[in-house]
């Protein structure tokens, strides 16, 4: 019996060697605080509160890991997190923004005025993957976000800062777009910045995340006996095969940061020309404009294949709202790196790990509407990939708890700085305004998803 060839590890080994050199050359940021009079005191207080919450973080990491729930089914996970927040004296809105397994808690100063005072949202994910559970470490994200919110609010109770801090529990990131549904329900109205973390094999201040669109294609032809009257058929599976090959040929002309993955099915038995066939296609790109351009090129191929095979084609884009590439805000990233240096971590600069090592997240949609922070925090060894059973094991270790606590301190410190430091807020906004806001619905309304050449 023949066996599949094992892929060569040469490219990965060369890439890891190059990354190791960049890591060795990376230096901690020069900024260590003192942007406003009490910053050092505030940061010390936030770090102390994060340590007080270590047992809470460990409980969340372990509990969610032991009870993984997939997208839109995170009823228990949401309840566990909301209960903890309520035990700390906050009320929670469960089912926030029209999403049943989302929740929100808030703190605001007595004199809070949304026209004059800033709002920061700390985001927490908690959905898991089918079969392999928390192999993306959302249990760590949840612990970091919740404990970061609690640590910041504990400091805010004894400071004169004016503003508002939100904790938003955001379900259904894996294969879905929970944050986009929340956005459409109003989750970012009045929000000036949004922050969260993600576990990884490296500490990185800003890493690439590609946008993603989903296309489902149905081809409908005419069945016929494949031997006696094949000329009376129109083969739907031929169309799917032609489209699959066309996508493969297009890859030569795709930018290195673009990705297309497709699967197909069709037919019941070899003696019958298939009258129907289906394709499920993911389209990904590092840029918003390139994502829309690639979508158009894929659509042209899919429609062209139907024409060649003489069959009907039906396309369904974005059964779940598309996710956009993450826009990393440089001012937020710089401040994050400073917080992590105090924890003994060097948050590596963008590009240390190649942009081609990239997945997708619905935080991209958030980051196109408000300034966003989405750093990577080391949970596992560098050679352990996300979405694997190996990473799932690391997501329940003491290293995962350390990552959650370090992240909680950093998220609290960045959020507190944003509320307290007008100069910092200006720098954050200036970076965001270089491109301005982009909403998914507006992007589609402008017709930028039309097939290339139309």
From TrEMBL:
Pfam families, per the entry: M20_dimer (PF07687), Peptidase_M20 (PF01546)
InterPro entries assigned: Amidohydrolase (IPR017439), Bact_exopeptidase_dim_dom (IPR036264), Peptidase_M20 (IPR002933), Peptidase_M20/M20A_hydrolases (IPR052030), Peptidase_M20_dimer (IPR011650), Xaa-Arg_dipeptidase (IPR017144)
SUPFAM superfamilies: Bacterial exopeptidase dimerisation domain (SSF55031), Zn-dependent exopeptidases (SSF53187)
Residues annotated as domain Peptidase M20 dimerisation: 216-303
Gene3D superfamilies (UniProt xref): 3.30.70.360, Zn peptidases
Family per similarity comment: Belongs to the peptidase M20A family.
Name of the protein in question: Peptidase M20 domain-containing protein 2
């Amino acid at each position: 019996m023949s066996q599949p060839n094992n892929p060569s590890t040469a490219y990965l080994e060369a890439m890891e060697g190059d990354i190791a050199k960049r890591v060795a050359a990376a230096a901690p940021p020069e900024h260590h605080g003192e942007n406003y009079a009490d910053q050092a005191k505030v940061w010390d207080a936030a770090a102390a509160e994060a340590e007080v919450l270590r047992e809470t973080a460990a409980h969340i990491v372990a509990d969610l890991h032991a009870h993984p729930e997939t997208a839109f089914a995170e009823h228990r996970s949401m309840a566990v997190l909301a209960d903890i927040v309520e035990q700390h004296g906050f009320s929670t809105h469960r089912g926030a923004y029209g999403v049943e397994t989302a929740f929100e808690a808030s703190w605001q100063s007595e004199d809070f005025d949304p026209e004059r005072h800033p709002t920061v949202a700390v985001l927490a994910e908690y959905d898991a993957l089918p079969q392999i559970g928390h192999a993306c470490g959302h249990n760590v994200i949840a612990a970091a976000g919740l404990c970061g919110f609690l640590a910041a609010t504990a400091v805010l109770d004894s400071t004169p800062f004016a503003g508002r801090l939100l904790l938003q529990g955001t379900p259904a990131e894996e294969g879905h777009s929970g944050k986009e549904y929340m956005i459409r329900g109003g989750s970012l109205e009045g929000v000036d910045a949004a922050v969260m973390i993600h576990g990884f094999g490296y500490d990185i201040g800003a890493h690439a995340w590609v946008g993603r669109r989903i296309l489902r294609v149905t081809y409908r032809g005419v069945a016929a006996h494949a031997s006696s009257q094949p000329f009376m058929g129109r083969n739907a599976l031929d169309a799917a095969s032609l489209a699959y090959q066309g996508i493969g040929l297009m890859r030569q002309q795709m930018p290195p940061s673009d990705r297309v993955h497709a699967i197909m099915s069709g037919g019941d038995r070899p003696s019958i020309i298939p009258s129907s066939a289906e394709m499920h296609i993911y389209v990904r790109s590092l840029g918003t404009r390139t994502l829309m351009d690639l979508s158009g090129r894929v659509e042209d191929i899919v429609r062209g294949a139907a024409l060649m095979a003489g069959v009907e084609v039906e396309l369904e884009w974005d059964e779940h709202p598309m996710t956009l590439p993450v826009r990393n805000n440089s001012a937020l990233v710089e401040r994050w790196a400073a917080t992590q240096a105090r924890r003994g971590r060097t948050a590596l600069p963008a590009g240390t790990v190649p942009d081609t090592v990239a997945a997708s997240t619905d935080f991209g949609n958030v980051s196109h509407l408000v300034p966003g922070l989405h750093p990577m925090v080391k949970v596992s060894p560098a050679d352990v990939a996300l979405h694997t059973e190996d990473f799932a094991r690391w997501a329940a270790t003491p290293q995962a708890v350390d990552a959650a606590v370090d992240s909680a301190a950093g998220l609290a410190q960045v959020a507190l700085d944003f509320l307290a430091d007008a100069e910092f807020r200006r720098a954050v906004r200036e970076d965001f305004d270089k491109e301005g806001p982009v909403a998914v619905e507006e992007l589609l309304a402008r017709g930028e998803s039309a097939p290339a050449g139309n």
